[in-house]
């Protein structure tokens, strides 16, 4: 249990505590340090405050600099007043005989040597330039072109399927202008233009087609065996390709009765892949079963346009 210190009189005790507190505060105000931090008395001497030796060394250095500057200035003045080099003792004072008096300077002692050295360097540079201009190139672009053509022939020979690369598409956008090229009406066109990738590759169809929600420029080309189908989207600048082997090509040709326009209507795009629909009903029409090699021979195709706008292809002979 806390108990306070017993006192006789509260007022006297309070007065006594205040007196002791004031005495304590007075001691704190008049407190002095035990360490002397004042300036030492030795610093009051002039020979300690001022470094006379250093000032003397600086004055001597400045004096030496001034003396050298005066000597240099005197030499420059003498050079400006008098010629720096004179051959008057040997050639006299005639300016025509003494070039130094005419130019105001000495005659070069190595002028001929420098002139010969400059001529030698010029001749060597000229020889190097002639060698560079007459040098034959190490690379022959004609041989490169021949090697490229040879590699292309070897590549076509070793491929299992005909070599079909991405063809160059027309710059015109897909629309009414694209349909005016004569192959957008559903007719089967017999193009004599060769694609460049294969010697016998011919286009059998070119038309604008709406596949899904987008319009494509559909191209079909064949070499008599395989069928290459490409669809170009002008909005996204993408080309989708589909390669049909010889067996399926013959089957599709019989199903479509030789009408590649009907085959184009079976195209479908799924996840940026070009596909052919199998279960779509095809129109029934009589057509002869032809060999795939015979349907692209030059002059052996006959195109008949029906009332429905589709083209029927028959072979002649």
Detailed description of the structure:
The chain is of the alpha+beta class. The chain has a domain of 140 residues. The strands form 3 sheets. Strands 1-2-3-4 form a 4-stranded antiparallel beta sheet. The longest helix is centred in the first third of the chain and has 30 residues. The chain starts with 9 loop residues before the first helix and ends with a strand. About 17% of the residues have low confidence.
Note the main attributes of this structure.
alpha+beta, two-stranded antiparallel ribbon, 10 helices
What strand line-up does the widest sheet have?
A: 1-2-3-4
Quantity of strands, as a count: 8
Instruction: Report the radius of gyration as a whole number of Å.
Output: 55 Å
Fraction of helical residues: 25-40%
Rounded average pLDDT? 75
Overall body shape: flat
Sheet of most strands: 4 strands, antiparallel
Order of helical and strand elements: HHHHHHHHEEEEHHEEEE
């Amino acid at each position: 249990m806390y108990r306070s210190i017993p006192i006789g009189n509260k007022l006297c005790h309070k007065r006594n505590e205040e007196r002791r507190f004031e005495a304590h505060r007075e001691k704190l105000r008049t407190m002095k340090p035990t360490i002397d931090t004042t300036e030492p008395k030795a610093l009051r001497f002039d020979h300690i405050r001022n470094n006379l030796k250093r000032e003397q060394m600086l004055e001597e250095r400045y004096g030496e600099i001034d003396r050298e500057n005066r000597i240099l200035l005197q030499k420059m003045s003498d050079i400006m007043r008098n010629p720096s080099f004179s051959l008057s003792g040997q050639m006299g004072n005639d300016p025509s005989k003494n070039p130094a008096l005419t130019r105001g300077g000495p005659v070069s002692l190595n002028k001929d040597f420098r002139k010969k050295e400059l001529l030698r360097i010029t001749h060597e540079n000229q020889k190097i330039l002639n060698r560079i201009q007459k040098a034959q190139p190490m690379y022959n672009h004609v041989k490169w072109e021949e090697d490229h053509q040879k590699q292309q022939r070897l590549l076509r020979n070793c491929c299992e399927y005909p070599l079909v690369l991405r063809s160059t598409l027309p710059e015109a956008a897909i629309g009414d202008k694209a349909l005016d090229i004569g192959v957008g009406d559903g007719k089967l066109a017999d193009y004599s233009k060769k694609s460049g990738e294969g010697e016998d590759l011919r286009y059998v169809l070119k038309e604008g087609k709406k596949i899904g929600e987008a319009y494509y420029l559909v191209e079909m080309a064949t070499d008599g065996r395989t069928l290459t189908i490409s669809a170009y989207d002008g909005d996204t600048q993408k080309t989708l390709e589909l390669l049909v082997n010889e067996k399926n090509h013959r089957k599709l040709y019989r199903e479509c009765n030789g009408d590649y326009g009907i085959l184009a209507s079976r195209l479908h795009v799924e996840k940026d892949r070009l596909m052919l629909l199998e279960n779509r009903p095809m129109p029934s029409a009589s057509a002869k079963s032809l060999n795939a090699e015979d349907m692209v021979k030059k002059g052996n195709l006959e195109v008949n346009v029906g009332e429905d706008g589709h083209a029927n292809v028959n072979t002649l002979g």
